[in-house]
Design goal:
Helix content: 40-55%
Strand content: 5-15%
Structural class: alpha/beta
Number of strands: 12
Number of domains: 2
CATH class of the largest domain: Alpha Beta
Largest sheet: 6 strands, parallel
Oligomer: single chain
CATH topology of the largest domain: Rossmann fold
Bound molecules: iron/sulfur cluster
Number of helices: 22
Shape: elongated
Distance between the termini: 80 Å
Length: 497
Amino acid sequence: MGIATSNKPFDERVKEAEADNFMRASVAKSQDAQFDKRTAARRELGNWEGWRDLSAQIRQHTIKYLPDYLEEFSDNVKKNGGHVFFAKDDKEASGFIKELAIKKHAKNVVKSKSMVTTEIDLDKTLLSIPGLALMETDLAEFILQEDNWDEPTHIVFPTLHKNRDQIQKVFQKIGYTGDNVPEHMAKFVRQYLRNYFMKADFGITGCNFAVANNGMINLVTNEGNADLTMAIPKTQVVVMGMERIVPSLKEAETLDNILSRSAVGQKLTSYCSFSSAKKVGEADGPDDFYVVIVDNGRSKMLNSEFEPMLQCIRCGSCLNVCPVYRQIGGKGYGSIYPGPMGDVLSPILGGYQQFRDLPYACSLCAACTETCPVKIPLHDLIRKHRYVEMDQLHLDHSMTNALLKTVGKGTASPALFADAMRGAHIGLKTFGKKTTEKDIKNLFPEGKVNHLPAIAPKLVHGWVDVRDLAVAPKYRENFRHWYKKNQQLTEEEQKND
Ligand code: SF4
């Protein structure tokens, strides 16, 4: 799939998302439920801010010494009998894995959930090998695969946009005859996938954390499919973004703790596994163990103002509090990385041309920054993207400059300011729509602009169509007038005292 999930213009994607009432209700319900679960899980841990500080320090320290830790990790994987491949981009990463699959005569590939494999378009690359069968084994990813490779809409809950009836229909295509009860459908998939696992000869997993000082891979999951992917096939390939390193098990423990609580509101996920190449005498595990470490644009962030984004542990918490994500869901962003983390990451990894609108899909409310367990200043990075875009894309801001200059002049002059206030009052009185009792969305009486002349610029229409504006008070009733009057009264009272 690659990073981009759609080539439609941003406006079009947003309009489609806005019209999808089911998706919006589903996202809102999920955000609310996740908020409650996450809050309870964090409270239970106690001193959440202390944990956040510690986690941020671990991530910052690791990123600062990333080349050293990567080298240490790579050496230890090799010492354990595994192999490491550093891929500079998506093509190199997926190309290497394709060659390996051909070399190993892979016929049945099983995969567990991994955003970075979606980023490098691995499924499509592998499926170009004649005679190779590939199966996504994470339940949500399996649903997307069976639904004609539908796109994911959340980094932790990829099928947030589907309900149980839609999922039932997907499963009916592969022989499911039961009802839409989630447990029944999950049981069916469990049996269905078990056959694939037993004959799998090539397994691919992602990686939550790679432990530098022992060369192990740490995965936190809830379904157990990743463990089967690691245990059964003779060849295991781990694909990881180059930033997913931790110095030792101690730091992995801290980060697993905050990751599980932030991602799914659990103390710890059902499975928390560490794996490496099979050692002599061990019964389980792969004969061949490969780790593919993917750059694909990440090193551009090192030593740049966007370096804090490398701290991300992909918990999805920022998506769960974002008011824009709540309205447009994952599909509105057109990236496999949606929400605030995607607003920052997508333009870096996929380019400003492709994702130029994402830094503007943000109200800068900073709810994401407040919730991020590793303290990434997301809203600030989004704002920085806007500056960069101004320069890189040579956006024309002459109109904004002219407008701001006019506003500056108007607010600096008391006479002009008073005239502007009078004009605003008359304008909103003339073009404003009276609030009716039914019109509960309008917070300000007569503030909804409803009669804009058709000749008004599109920008003005776009701005006022979705906003309620308070009618400015009459000149003789505004704050400045009140202040002047009261100041005079106070001075007179003081004289009389
Ligand atoms: S930016 Fe922070 S909150 Fe968002 S996914 Fe990454 S770690 Fe989680």
